[in-house]
Amino acid sequence: MIIIPGSVWRYNYAVATSTAFRYLNLLVALICAAFLGYAYWLQYTEFLDPCPLCIFQRVAFFALGLVALAAALHNPGRRGRTIYALLGGFCAAMGTAIAGRHVWLQNLPPDQVPECGPGLEYMLRAFPLSRTIRETLTGSGECASVDWTFAGLSMPWWTLFWFVMLGALVLTIGLRRRFACH
Question: What is the DSSP string of 27-90?
Fold first, then answer.
């Protein structure tokens, strides 16, 4: 058996990065599942109904968790990791944008808060999907109310924080080798 100097180290490094990639993506998926579970617990046991922007943030957490779970199960090579990182980063960026809009609405002066519009369920039945998305992302008065806080921050502030953190983690673990100096 011929051992090429450095080849064992490269093999061990590849296995270690592969394992870390899987576990960190699984962690992201579990965190997203925990957030969704908590949101549904608040909705069905504490009767805290979500506004349309909250529902879109849930969709973004679901998409991010799904991408991270697929990445953990698939455990692709370098090119596949880049694709998963960019998909996860996109989901996190969309969630960040929605949560940022929600935070902005909650911090408007009371006289500038938009009026309440129809519910999401009604808009999905009555309007085309493009108009429903546009109307929802514009926000309404119900999105400006603060019904839940923790440590002085509303739920959109916390989701904004976690979208940024999870997006950074997904991008870091997926693109790490691409930017490493050799």
Answer: HHHHHHHHHHHHHHHHHHTS--PPPHHHHHHHHHHHHHHHHHHHHHHH---HHHHHHHHHHHHH
Residue 179 has what pLDDT? 41
pLDDT of residue 181: 41
Q: How many residues does the chain have?
A: 182
Mean pLDDT for each consecutive 10-residue tract of the chain (182 residues)?
Answer: 51 60 95 97 91 90 98 91 96 96 83 69 80 73 74 91 97 73 40
Report pLDDT for 3.
53
Q: What is the pTM of this model?
A: 0.79
Tally of structural domains, the chain: 1
Burial (0-12, 13-18, 19+ Cβ within 10 Å), 7? exposed
Q: Is 135 exposed, middle or buried (0-12, 13-18, 19+ CB in 10 A)?
A: middle
The structure tokens listed for 69 are 């779970």
In the chain, helix, strand, coil percent, each to 5?
75, 0, 20
Residue 59 sits in a domain whose CATH number is: 1.20.1550.10
With respect to residue 51, please indicate whether it lies within any of the assigned structural domains.
Answer: yes
What's the domain range around 77?
26-112+144-179
Asked whether residue 17 is assigned to any structural domain, the reply reads no
